[in-house]
Amino acid sequence: MLQLCFVRVSFEKDTKIMNAASFTIEREDHTIGNILRMQLHRDPNVHFAGYKLPHPLQYKIIVRIHTASQSSPTQAYTQAINDLDKELENLKQAFEANTFE
Questions:
Q1: Rounded CA separation 77/37 (Å)
Q2: Do residues 51 and 33 lie in contact, with contact meaning Cβ atoms separated by under 8 Å?
Q3: Judging by beta carbons within 10 Å of its beta carbon (0-12, 13-18, 19+), is residue 99 exposed, middle or buried?
Q4: What pLDDT score was predicted for residue 99?
Q5: Long-range contacts: 33-36, Cβ < 8 Å, 24+?
Q6: Taking the CB of residue 101, how many other CB atoms lie within 10 A of it?
Q7: In DSSP terms, which residues pair with 50 in a beta bridge?
Q8: Assessment of whether the complete model's pTM goes beyond 0.85
Q9: Is 77 helix (H, G, I), strand (E, B) or coil?
Q10: Sheet of 60-67, strand order
Q11: 36 C-beta neighbours (distance < 10 Å), count
């Protein structure tokens, strides 16, 4: 059996700006990009968070994060993903509780 290993997220540190980096997320589009950007904006240590879809025919997004000196882009990214996971789990539980009553 052939198994393919595919890395969905790659990291590139910015060489010109301290505490800035880009995360390329494969096989995602505006849906995840916008949700992740908005979650990053909730973090007081994030100075800038944005994303772009490089080309309509390329199925990937590039998320740019610039943080304060007491944090790192990787920490902000990980925290945003964890917070979104918890938020979506709470939404799912609330939906299921109201649906199956």
A1: 10
A2: yes
A3: exposed
A4: 82
A5: 33/61, 33/63, 35/84, 36/63, 36/80, 36/81, 36/84
A6: 5
A7: 64
A8: yes
A9: helix
A10: 9-13, 20-26, 60-67, 46-52
A11: 22
- Percent of the chain topping pLDDT 90: 85
Task: Output the six-digit token pair for 50.
Answer: 């944005």
Show the tokens assigned to 36: 């992740």
Binned at pLDDT 50, 70 and 90, residue 1 comes out as: low
* 3-state SS string for 11-64: EEECCCCCCEEEEEEECCCHHHHHHHHHHHHCCCCEEEEEEECCCCCCCEEEEE
What is the crossing angle of helices 30-41 and 73-99, to 10°?
110
Contacts for 79 with CB less than 8 Å, ≥ 6 apart: 43
Domain annotation for the chain: domains and CATH numbers: 9-99 (3.30.1360.10)
Six token digits for residue 7: 């890395």
Report which DSSP code applies to 70. Answer: T
